[in-house]
Amino acid sequence: MPGCASRLTRPSRVLQADASSVMDSQQRYYTLSASCPDGVGIVARVAGFIAGHHGWILESRYHSDDEDGQSRYFMRVDIKADSLPFHLAEFRARFRPIAEELQMSWKISDSAVKKRVVIMVSQQEHCLYDLLARWQSKELDIEIPCVISNHDTFRGFVEWHGIPFHHVPVTPDGKEAAYAEIRRIFEEVKGETMVLARYMQIIPSDMCEAYPGRILNIHHSFLPSFVGAKPYHQAHQRGVKLIGATCHYVSSQLDQGPIIEQDVIRIDHADSIDNMVRYGKDIEKAVLARGLRYHLEDRVLLHGNKTVVFR
To answer: Which superfamily does 4-20+114-309 belong to?
Structure first.
């Protein structure tokens, strides 16, 4: 059919993202991610500390961002775990004086420790199905302690995978109680990241503030265009030639949180809203999976309402 090729996502881009983020699964490594006021000698201090303890740097990325005269430096460093003579607790203790001197915001994680991801969903299944398929195949090597939904639709599917399912209805008069229950479950299962896999409810401000940079959403639009509900309908009315999806952190302002990943596909005047929704589902799955992977691998550093993403 004429024009079909133009609707395909660019495979080279997807492959590049996967190749840059996947490391030998048999090789354990620590990931140091940090930001601090920019200045001379930051890389030398950090690399010198690692080298001084015979640490082997596997990958390193750096970026300087100057906004409103406030220059800030960002870094991400992968260190071969068995090259160091100590574990993370001692690394943190030894590195802390340098971090304090550099006024650094930092964290270090262990690739051998799986991140705990709680998935939330409503009644659209495509992102949930995709994430569980990637989890089952170990492409996303994570723990999924539970799935939470405001509908009971996917209980059987989720429990077939051996994952606990929690049905928490959200009614106009019971929203406060519902989100209190969601927070209770999230804390009880020791969740680290919450993923809104087409969870079609607005997260309350207090919950956003409780988990900054820990709640990811997939929005079926190329933000900041067409925020809110029915973006494909809005796009169709405007006669756009590109539609896309955006993975972003959830903030108290609807669909305004820091953007992690985006992509688009081309459409034309002959495409109906149903066609746009169908094309969009494919891109939503890919963008959410990439954004979640970047987050889990500590490749995303927040900078106000922006992100630095070391792909």
So the answer is: Formyl transferase, N-terminal domain (3.40.50.170)
